[in-house]
């Protein structure tokens, strides 16, 4: 009877096995019953996790929450004596799986870390805590968990329940290796990530032996997707995108491949193309949570805050376990928060302008108002030592900005302090025509950009500028600008500038850009020649 009941408990019938064991206290000891009860909770946890993975409705966590409640209650009842140590460890492993599936990643980590080192831990629990560490942005600990799970995957478990149906769909070796791959890339350990890819490829069956119905088809697709992402991570963006394009041609409706393409474009600055790809993928996969989260991140970067807010509201608290949703929600929370921006500049030795100079520019923005509006307070402070005297300048201002898609507008009322203080205003308009070209125009009636010696001479100035900017991903950019300034001593300054940046070397952890700046300026009171700078 013991054999029959334990076989039933380890093959998916733990709830029935527990009833039979409790009915025969003469055959089953309290420890036996505790083991079977733990197996019944494990069965419910796995069933609840399967429901979470299969559903997208608000009730997807009902079964899992019930299982967690029963596990917590059982944990309180378990004796702390040594003979129950393995039962407690097994229960903690199952609770780790449940918490991770529920999106309670801190609870998953805290529960896992109570398991003694010498205790046997299931691959499922190690995979779950690896996911939790990755979610919490602790890739070094995720690496340890995935590595341990991979090593354990090759061993035959002593826990018979892991061989049956207790875990539902088992975590496969390629799942663990994919988690380890991302743990390595998150730590910039690209040589180790490359080795993981080699291990995946080595274990794939020969392509000519793969049938259309084999799981290896999906494994091959996953391998080539990870390989393309690896190439993008190490700077071989063109090769990576080409690999994803070839993969898309083979599996044109794969949401994973199309999302990887869109993610790469989003990361390289092709925000509108990424948005269009996410939108197209949602047409074919309207239930893809990762695609919707990607569209939300693209909308934030495009300052399409209305769309981002609707996506945020649609997610609500339905997908707390999904890392893509978490990334979007984190970005959205940052957008909703007030913003403090401080820029500090210092220079020594440019005696034409000042022997020493220091300035700080501080902006404090409010949280968004009706998505697109913010108000801000602005303080500029600068000090300089020159051969004709020392000078300090302070200008404060309040203003607001409006951001909606390609259009950004900023306006500010200002007041400079001191005996030469003035009341003024400034404004700027930026419009992005596409991912590559944008234009900016601005005016300032009390400019902070005059040479410091001009402020020593009690001069002030008005300025206006226009710039046309070009950006081709993150590898090259350029701009051409024209600015004009009228000083209070009747001097009229004009400047034309041309600048460009080109990526000339890219490796996994190094980037080298070449920047050229050319400008020519003229003054009605003193002429200036051509200036060239190489950075």
Account of the protein in words:
The protein has 535 residues and is α+β, with helices and mostly antiparallel strands. Among the domains are: 1-171, Serine Threonine Protein Phosphatase 5, Tetratricopeptide repeat (Alpha Horseshoe), CATH 1.25.40.10; 339-534, Porin (Beta Barrel), CATH 2.40.160.40. Helices cover 45% and strands 25% of the residues. It is built from 18 helices and twelve strands. The chain has a twelve-stranded antiparallel sheet with strand order 1-2-3-4-5-6-7-8-9-10-11-12. Helix 7 packs antiparallel against helix 8 (139-153), helix 9 runs parallel beside helix 11 (216-233) and helix 15 (289-301) runs antiparallel to helix 16 (305-315). The longest helix is centred in the N-terminal third of the chain and has 25 residues, at 30-54. It is elongated and about 105 Å long. It comes from Paraburkholderia denitrificans. InterPro entries: PgaA_barrel, TPR-like_helical_dom_sf. Residues 350-527 form the PgaA membrane beta barrel domain. This is Tetratricopeptide repeat protein.
Blueprint (SSEs and pairs):
Elements: H1 2-9, H2 14-22, H3 30-54, H4 62-77, H5 85-102, H6 105-112, H7 123-135, H8 139-153, H9 173-186, H10 190-203, H11 216-233, H12 237-250, H13 255-267, H14 271-284, H15 289-301, H16 305-315, H17 323-336, E1 339-348, E2 356-365, E3 373-386, E4 389-404, E5 407-416, E6 423-432, E7 437-444, H18 452-456, E8 461-472, E9 476-487, E10 492-506, E11 511-523, E12 530-534
Antiparallel strand pairs: 1-2, 2-3, 3-4, 4-5, 5-6, 6-7, 7-8, 8-9, 9-10, 10-11, 11-12
Helix pairs in contact: 1-2, 2-3, 3-4, 3-5, 4-5, 5-6, 5-7, 6-7, 7-8, 7-9, 8-9, 9-10, 9-11, 10-11, 11-12, 11-13, 12-13, 13-14, 13-15, 14-15, 15-16, 15-17, 16-17
């Amino acid at each position: 009877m013991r054999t029959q009941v334990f076989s039933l408990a380890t093959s998916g019938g733990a709830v029935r096995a527990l009833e039979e064991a409790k009915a025969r206290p003469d055959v089953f000891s309290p420890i036996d019953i505790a083991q079977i009860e733990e197996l019944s909770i494990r069965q419910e946890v796995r069933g609840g996790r399967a429901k979470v993975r299969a559903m997208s409705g608000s009730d997807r966590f009902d079964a899992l929450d019930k299982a967690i409640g029963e596990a917590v209650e059982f944990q309180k009842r378990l004796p702390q004596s040594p003979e129950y140590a393995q039962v407690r460890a097994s229960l903690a492993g199952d609770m780790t799986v449940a918490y991770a599936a529920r999106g309670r990643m801190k609870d998953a980590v805290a529960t896992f870390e109570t398991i003694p080192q010498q205790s046997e831990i299931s691959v499922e629990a190690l995979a779950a805590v690896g996911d939790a560490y990755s979610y919490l942005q602790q890739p070094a600990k995720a690496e340890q968990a995935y590595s341990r799970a991979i090593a354990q995957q090759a061993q035959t478990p002593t826990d018979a329940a892991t061989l049956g149906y207790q875990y539902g769909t088992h975590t496969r070796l390629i799942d663990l290796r994919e988690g380890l791959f991302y743990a390595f890339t998150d730590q910039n350990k690209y040589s180790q990530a490359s080795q993981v890819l080699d291990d995946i490829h080595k274990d794939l069956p020969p392509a000519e032996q793969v049938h259309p119905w084999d799981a290896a088809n999906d494994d091959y697709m996953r391998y080539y997707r990870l390989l393309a992402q690896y190439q993008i991570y190490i700077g071989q963006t063109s090769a990576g995108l080409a690999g994803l394009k070839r993969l898309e041609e083979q599996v044109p409706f794969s949401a994973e491949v199309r999302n990887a393409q869109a993610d790469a474009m989003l990361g390289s600055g092709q925000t509108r193309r990424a948005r269009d790809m996410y939108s197209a993928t949602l047409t074919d996969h309207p239930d893809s949570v990762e695609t919707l989260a990607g569209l939300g991140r693209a909308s934030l970067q495009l300052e399409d805050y209305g769309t981002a807010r609707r996506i945020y509201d649609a997610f609500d608290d339905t997908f707390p376990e999904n890392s893509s949703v978490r990334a979007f929600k984190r970005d959205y929370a940052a957008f909703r928060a007030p913003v403090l921006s401080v820029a500090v500049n210092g220079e020594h030795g440019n005696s034409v302008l000042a022997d020493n100079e220091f300035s700080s520019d501080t902006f404090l923005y409010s949280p968004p108002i009706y998505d697109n509006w913010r108000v801000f307070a602005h303080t500029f402070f600068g000090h300089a030592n020159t051969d004709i005297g020392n000078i300090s300048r302070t200008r404060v201002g309040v203003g607001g900005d409006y951001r909606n898609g390609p259009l950004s507008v900023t306006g500010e009322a200002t007041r400079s302090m001191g005996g030469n203080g003035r009341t003024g205003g400034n404004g700027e308009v930026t419009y992005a025509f596409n991912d590559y070209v944008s234009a900016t125009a601005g005016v300032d009636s009390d400019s902070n950009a005059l040479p410091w010696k001009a402020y020593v001479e009690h001069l002030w100035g008005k300025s206006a500028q226009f710039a046309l900017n070009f950006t081709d991903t993150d590898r090259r950019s350029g701009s051409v600008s024209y600015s004009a300034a009228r000083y209070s001593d009747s001097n009229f300054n004009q400047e034309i500038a041309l600048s460009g940046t080109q990526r000339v070397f890219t490796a996994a952890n190094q980037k080298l850009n070449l920047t050229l700046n050319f400008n020519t300026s003229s003054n009605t009171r003193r002429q200036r020649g051509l200036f060239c700078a190489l950075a």
